[in-house]
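Reopening this one. Same input as before:
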Amino acid sequence: MKILLVEDKIEMQKSTIIALLSLAIGICTGSELYQPFAIAVIGGFLIAVPLLLIV
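Same output, byte for byte:
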């Protein structure tokens, strides 16, 4: 049961990172405003995934 929860969290984080990539790269309209936010969220997710698997 716990393995399914970890897989769900990893899938959610992957989909969020993919969705925020267009903002982080700067190809969307108004991305100048949200680009730092997108980069910070992607970085947080990339750090949180290994911590989720370790702890």
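So the earlier flakiness isn't reproducible anymore. For the record, Helices lie at 2-25, 31-54.
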